[in-house]
Design goal:
Cathepsin B, Chain A; single chain; 360 residues
């Protein structure tokens, strides 16, 4: 029921003209409105609206919001159902990056929030980051150069230029980008992944489907390596289980401060389908041959959309491949695919979720 209401509300919002949406923002930001206070002065609001009116109508505003929700499983579930994701969970609540539609949904569902900052989504001159401090000295060091938008127990939220990261790295202060963490894209937006063929790998091309899949996901998030780099560092055996795939991916994600973390599952088919419907690609294990791993990105009820590192599957249980054909964006029939991944009702997969900073 909640999903139905949200979808209906999105459709109605998409028909609103930009200037009317701006009027809604100005109402939200007035002192009389209980939800939030976003602009420090009428002049600031006027200037912001003026800039927007001069911009292309497709441009959207991104907001960083502090959500006054009790942290825990119930809070996680509430926010996942309404705004989709968040990047920070702490004693005082949650932080999330939302667009206007999600801001309106917070109002619709009566979730108390405070807007910490806002800017155009395509403005990359400055970005929002979480910066972790391990001592009062490091906190003061951050404050001496940047004005925190939010201060937690172990981390602060700052808005800085990309060139400022060098200063923080020089002082060994770890940072995480947050705009890419929760994003403002709709949950039904299709994610386009890079593609690697395992048969172009130099190291064990016939046995590195798992590492090739991990390389595709890592490359999507900005990693510059190739599948052979993973094989050289980890071999061909570790990532052949969901837990191993989780371990390998997260080692790179933590080292590179990527805004995503992996989680391996051995769980029921229904949960797998539920996870896939959320719009995030999953690395799936199955009997496409005697044993193979590929990426499933979506399912329309008839076919699965896949990036298959081995080429084109013949859609037979424990079948074979045409390796001369690219495995990019292959479509596999639902019944054939399900038989391969879940002969006993269970599925092995690795999912990738936005990184959430725990500050308790």
């Amino acid at each position: 029921m909640l999903k139905h209401k949200e979808t209906k509300y999105y459709k109605s919002l998409s028909k609103l003209p930009l200037l009317f949406l701006l009027l809604i923002i100005s109402c939200f930001c007035s002192p009389a409105f209980a939800g939030a206070q976003a602009f420090s002065s009428a002049e600031e609001l006027g200037e912001f609206k003026k800039n927007l009116q001069q911009a292309d109508s497709r441009l959207q505003i991104g907001f960083i919001v502090h959500l006054r929700v009790l942290p825990g499983m119930a809070g996680d579930d509430l926010l996942e159902r309404t705004i989709g994701s968040f990047f920070y969970r702490g004693k005082s609540g949650y932080l999330a990056h939302v667009d206007l539609r999600r801001l309106l949904l917070l109002e619709l569902f009566g979730i108390t929030y405070r807007i910490l900052d806002k800017k155009l989504l395509d403005d990359h001159k400055e970005r929002w980051y979480l910066a972790e401090f391990r001592s009062c000295h490091e906190l003061e060091l951050i404050k001496s150069s940047f004005e925190p938008l939010f201060v937690g127990v172990k981390a602060v939220l700052i808005r800085i230029r990309p060139c400022d990261l060098g200063y923080l790295q020089k002082h060994k202060i770890e940072t995480w980008p947050v705009e890419e963490v929760s994003g403002a894209a709709k949950s039904d937006d299709k994610i386009e992944l890079p593609y690697f063929s395992q048969y172009k790998n130099s190291l064990n091309p016939g046995g590195t489907c798992q590492n090739t899949c991990l390389a595709m996901i890592l490359r999507h998030y900005g990693w510059k390596g190739v599948p052979d780099d993973i094989t050289r560092a980890w071999g061909s055996q570790v990532a052949q289980t969901p837990e191993g795939g989780e371990k390998v991916f997260n080692s790179y994600a933590e080292k590179l401060a990527l805004p995503v973390r992996a989680k391996g599952y051995r769980a029921a088919y229904n949960l797998f389908r539920q996870k896939l419907s959320q719009g995030h690609p999953l690395i799936v294990h199955g009997y496409f041959t005697a044993g193979h791993v590929l990426i499933a990105s979506s399912c329309d009820g008839n076919y699965y959309d896949c990036h298959d590192p081995a080429g084109k599957w013949n859609q037979v249980y424990k079948g074979s491949y045409d390796t001369s054909v690219s495995g990019r964006n292959q479509k596999y029939r639902l019944s054939n695919f399900d038989k391969a991944i879940s002969p006993d009702g269970m599925v092995w997969w690795v999912e990738f979720n936005p990184f959430v900073y725990e500050d308790m």
